[in-house]
Amino acid sequence: MATVKGFKAIRYNPENVGDFANVLAPPYDVINKEEREELFEKDPRNVVRLILPKGEGDSKYELAAKTFRSWLAENVLMQDQEESIYPYYQEFEDKGRRLTRKGFIAIVKLEDFSTKTILPHKRTFPEHKQDRMKLITACIANMSPVFSVYSDPEGTVEKAIDLTITNKPIFEVEGNEGVVNKMWQVSDPTLLKLVKETMAEKSLLIADGHHRYETALEYRDKRRADSETGPGEEPYEYVMMFLSRGEDQGLVINPTHRVVKNLKGLSEDELLNKLKDEFELREMPFDEAVSGIGDQEFTLLKGGPDHAYRVTPKDSAREAGGSPGVITLHTKVFNKIIDEESAGILYSKYLDETVELVRSGEYKLAFILPELKAVDIFDVVSSGDRMPHKTTYFYPKILSGLTFNPLW
User: Fold this and answer.
1) Is the pLDDT assigned to residue 321 strictly greater than 80?
2) What does the DSSP assignment read for 96-136?
3) Which CATH number fits domain 257-368: 3.30.1480, 2.60.40, 3.30.2310, 3.30.1760?
4) Architecture field, domain 4-252+395-406
């Protein structure tokens, strides 16, 4: 199964960077042009210069590599001398609850998906992988961790880490939306041995970073082809990962709601009648309809504030361990009743935004989805399937600039 171990990370030198808030950044794929400019101006050592460099064509990747090497030479970045894992905790508010998502950064041996040791749940796009491939090739390093989830009902690893991190963290930074980020370095051989042995029994579900993982696979294969020896324990056989326990209360997977702009000649009454062939529809007050949605259900919002319907598979389709609501929506509604391609669908992570788009009349209707659990996604991908696109939003996002994994 999974091979997880400590590594000698490259990371920002606390003695030279001062306030970590100035050098860390959101993930590269959520930074827009304006935010990139702000991060460039914020600090000349901000990680955005490595993960989202400026420049024309492929020259920007070489610039990122040059910057990476110069920061290492100038001691802006430092490399740890002991193999370590890096516990990374994020404290945040969610629906009135104060939560902490716990996890740790380590390196994980790359496995082809066919082994079912590493499980993807999203499909990827070639152009995004090309971009990351050029960056990893130029820098010869993993610049950001893949985010993966493992199952450990007893919390063996998490409890052991909690007992170890009694010292002050390397940094404590408040990021966007008031999320407090903390990271430690742990090189205790006993803990590293426990982590390796416990994780060896696990499969890992990729939560975020599918393009990074598939890029690491391609990079590994390229380095293997250039090598005169067979596969072994070379650095490129591993990828840097942040690993979080699936049963942890702090592992929040917010849904991405679907907002439909047009029905292409289908009236709302016709839609309701077609839905009744496959589902039970219950009209209910808005507040009730958008809360407490069952795992296999979804809510249909249309028109005014009272037009909300709880949509539930009929008894013949509803079963224990049945498909999550988002899969039911895509298999039984989209491309069967509503043409997904022509419906002008907007995907929103925010319930308030979703409701406002419908109530304003800008969009015809919305499908409100329930929160997902890690076990739901494990069940889907273990059967060889993948979740529909734009389904999961693991909150909060992992910051960039925590650690780098050299592949030389």
Assistant:
1) no
2) TEEEEE-EEEEEEE---GGGSSEE--S---HHHHHHHHHHH
3) 3.30.1760
4) Alpha-Beta Complex (3.90)
